[in-house]
From TrEMBL:
UniProt name for this protein: Ferritin-like domain-containing protein
GO molecular function: ferric iron binding; ferroxidase activity; heme binding
Domain Ferritin/DPS span(s) in chain numbering: 36-168
InterPro entries: Ferritin-like, Ferritin-like_SF, Ferritin_DPS_dom
Organism (species): Candidatus Coproplasma avicola
UniProt superkingdom: Bacteria
Keywords on record: Iron, Iron storage
Swiss-Prot/TrEMBL GO biological process terms: intracellular iron ion homeostasis
Length: 173
């Protein structure tokens, strides 16, 4: 498994975080909604496989490294959801037993450039969503976790932007 593309600093501890319905409601969409971490993992994995199939291993490895980072975020958010008082079921609003995640939200584009454009859009949304959460959270411990994840998402946004620029302006062109 590739090394995750993450900021070079630890994630805050989740120990001692107490149930908090308000914080739970605010962070839940980042877990398994149509624009959450679960969707990012599946989308980036699909795109990495497609790039690999075209022999673009360097690009595939970059996308894989971002997918692995999103897996880490999913795990952290799942543990955080538990600490906040809910089961981390794959819905947009745990613990609700409805509105389950669907892979229909994954970008199944056939164009490699469109895939990266979709990934860039997903990361822009992630950055905006996590920033919005920070504006609305009152729980400082949860804010620390979300702020740390946001740092990674900004790296991913930059990486996909750089990848798209490379694809639009290949070497020697």
């Amino acid at each position: 498994m590739p090394k995750p593309l993450i900021a070079d600093k630890p994630y805050p501890s989740l120990e001692g975080i107490c149930p908090d319905c308000r914080a739970l409601r605010i962070i839940s969409p980042a877990y398994a909604s149509s624009t959450g971490e679960l969707n990012a993992i599946l989308q980036y994995n699909y795109h990495a496989v497609m790039f690999d199939g075209k022999g673009l291993n360097e690009y595939a490895e970059l996308i894989d490294s971002i997918a692995v980072a999103e897996m880490l975020h999913l795990k952290i958010l799942g543990k955080l959801i538990c600490a906040l008082g809910a089961q981390p079921v794959y819905t947009a609003c745990p613990p609700a037993g409805f509105n389950f995640y669907s892979a229909k939200f994954v970008s199944y584009s056939r164009s490699l450039k469109n895939m990266v454009e979709d990934d860039l859009l997903a990361e822009r949304h992630a950055v905006m969503s996590y920033a919005h959460m920070l504006d609305h959270l009152r729980n400082d411990r949860v804010k620390e976790v979300i702020a740390r994840i946001l740092e990674d998402e900004k790296l991913h946004l930059q990486a996909f932007g750089d990848l798209l620029a490379k694809m639009e302006c290949p070497k020697g062109g």
